Amino acid sequence: MLHLVLGLGLAVSHAQFVARPVPASAPRVAVPLSFSHTPQTLNALGVQHGALLTAALNSVAALPLPERTFAATVKAMGRAYGDYYEAIRPAVFLASVSPDPAVRQAAEALDKSADALMVILGQREDLYQAVKDAAAKDEALDGPDQRLLESTLKGFEHSGLGLDEAARSRMAAVDTRLSELSAAFSRNLRDADLTLTVAEKHLKGLPAAMVAGLPRTQDGKMRLRLDAPTYGLVMERAESRGLRRAAYLKHGNAAAAVNGPILQETLALRHESARMSGFKNYAEMALSGRMAQEPKRVWAFLNKLRLALKEPRAAEKKELRDYAKAQGAKNLKPWDSGFWEARIYEELLGVRLTEVPAEGAWHPEVREVQVTDAATGAKLGRFYLDLFPREAKYGHMAAFTLVSGRELPDGTYRMPVSALVGNFTRPSGGRPSLLRPSEVKTLFHELGHIMHQTLTKSRHWSQSGSATARDFVEAPSQMMESFVWRTDTLVNLSGHWSEPSRKLSADTAERIVADKFFSPASDALGQAVLAAFDLAVHSSGAADALKVYAKVVKAFLGGAPAAGTNFPARFGHIMGGYAAGYYGYLWSRVFALDAFSAFEAAGVFSSEVGRRWREAVLERGSERPESDSLRDFLGRDPDEGPFLRSLNRVPLRPST
User: Is 347 an annotated catalytic residue?
Assistant: First the structure.
């Protein structure tokens, strides 16, 4: 049985969760996956499946008008795209995790060619006409099919169909260039030099086992690579203020020289694309298909937070300054805050998680987990765990969809496959990997995405699992975070790594929770700054991103960004799917905490409420409006009250 080991010597066993059954679904069929690719096989895979997809779409385009029904056009196209991505996604995933640089490069090239193919297919007038002909038949479609028809039409329109030939050609060129820029931005961040050379005397406060494992230079200094867990440890535990400052500046300026121009070109092209599509700016276009619908609703939300959190944040910062001053630190800088602040699925969702051999995985450290229904024993899906840092590996924590759940032509259901990629501290000195509470929270968050992807019952792959509106997709994972920050959860799930029967004391659990809720206003306002920058820069054409960021920081925080850093050049979210959508983290937190309030009302670990959450939200994906799924679960309209109450502060408690 898989065990995940937490900070302070805690151990979480997935077997400690229980569950209620859910209705049986169609038999789930697994697809064989291979990660033992070479550059040659990756290239051949792209050519083969690109040809298969094109042939399938050609067949749709060739249908005579009387035969252009929803099933023969839209549904057939959806299945063809589903087949394509089922083959391509696991291969492209290797760009983020393969230890072989040649394979990473080939997988990245495959990703680029797949994006280029999507641009070409998205501008095919014959396919657009086939879909319009099917829509004109006005067939009686149920909710998921009607949403698929509408999203397919909108996709063609956003690709420039309806424009004249010259404009379509320009739109295709813009889309292709945007894909290239996004890939380059991510590659630059992944390959950025994040190494510091430090004298050992400056490493005081860092774990001895970690320091002992650092490579040395010829002159006896230590090489400190600032991957995610190491950077977190330095900012929270390193006693050397100079080291914290150096790490903060190194991390905050990563790839700035190359990514700054890439971001500026991206912003200009997105603005051009939006204007060609008939929108005022990119933010307006991006939000047209989301829950928020328009930028002014998001600005109202963010400004409400800005005003509501101004005084609580000031009080939190004063308390932090006073606390640090009492410890001998004065004039706090951004690289100091982390140092001073640092001082349950199975039961709820009706599943069992069991480790199985990860045969054929991309690295020896990868582990595989089988997800089964707790009541029936039916296999629901599986996911991989790749949790430790490697050179040139994806540098953060994320859940990747490798195979989407979907209905197959024979009535069976494709078994979903996902991967959870992270960068936790490696086991050392005979001890397992011990996670800090913040890392536990991140783990729960990403497992929330994994469960969303695994438990899906959506008919169409494009509505499956976490393929929801960008401003809702974080809600299920954020809801699961709430279970971490409870004393009863921490005590019940804990166990010392060397003696699992030893539980965390209630007092220690209370302190962990108090630490989490010590600065909620500051944390929320920090997220609001990023959301406001994202929305502002995508509403401003080709404005200078660094200047826009500074303006937003001043408006929300009353100060200026740290000199010598270029945050926009490393803000990877806005170069991918979160462009004009970062507000979704806060927006969806409103839904997440409202959903969690239903668990609290029933006793938190209610399997009955968990069953309703699984059936009403997780299984439905985006086959119906996400607001309908929330109302189904809650029995009412969503309420922002639990979110606002969560921002109440807890006074800082001194260590004893």
Answer: no
